[in-house]
Amino acid sequence: MAEKVLILGGAGFVGSSLAIHLKKHHFQWQIICFDNLRRRGSELNLPRFKNLGIEFIHGDIRSASDLDPGSFDVDTIIDCSAEPSVLAGFNSPQYVLQTNLVGTINVLELARQIQARLLFLSTSRVYPIETLKSINLVELPTRFNIATEQTIPGVSNLGIAEEFPLQSYRSLYGTTKLASEMLIEEYRQAYNIQAIVNRCGVITGPWQMGKVDQGVFVLWLAAHYFEKSLSYIGYGGTGKQVRDLLHIEDLLRLIDYQLEYFSELNGDVLNVGGGVDNSLSLLETTKLCEAITGKSIAIASEETARQGDIPIYITDSSKIISKTGWKPMINPEQTLRDIYHWILEYETILKPVLS
Fold first, then answer.
1. HSE (CB half, 13 Å, CA atoms) of 311?
2. What would the pLDDT profile of 6-19 be if each residue is shown by its tens digit?
3. What is the DSSP-derived secondary structure letter of residue 274?
């Protein structure tokens, strides 16, 4: 089992949730969070770390000197540090490339030199955009569904499996994450570094500072709560596009398991998401947000999709479920309720960030 854990991107949503979860469950462990605090709202996690005795280092994975092997005596590195926005790849490619690609090289070099094992959070965005767009869909009253008849491997009514073809473009963000996966495999073979890759779909829950391009379910609930306007963008502007969502607590349970059985899962690349039972369209999300907050807001309609967008993504996590017995436990309504109660409790500090 891990005893000294370095969490990169440790003040972000997943990193901070993981740090706090691990410290509460293993109070004797040394947990170090490393973050450049670039994302708005990440600074709100620093007092939470202090209260629990979690060490914080302000640094940037783009800088090799910030990851000097002499400064880190850890046995496990968990990398949650990416620039997670598809849109950022179109607007600021240099930052995405430096953080997600050069950053991974620096992280792997650290792992190699201190012989630490690496748990890497990748993304469903490694799957190519045009291929995802060409999945056969059925339009229902409130959502798109994956049709029964498909010609693409790795697609079924359960969603997208690891066998989905990787040939074609996928956004700069997706490419940096796929390239990182490939580098990890090379380092695993060349330097005997233990590594696990989780290709995560949409993860959400309390303490996510939701934005349009990352954290859409928090954004949607917060917009209802603070009565801000929203838009259905693309695919006819009706809000029928679908994503599955995974409550952060469900991800943390999986990572607990992976840390305990690391060597058995070493080398695995695994799709991790809420799956078809935990999927929502934007329209369905609106209805839930209205019911939970008791408020309805104006939602505009734009027919043209944004660059890099897709009508549906649902994670098929069958591989990890059959390997570990893990499966998501928290349904979308409960997830949105948890987000609501979090905003209610911390409204004063969250309002500047979320509204």
1. 21
2. 999 999 999 999 99
3. -
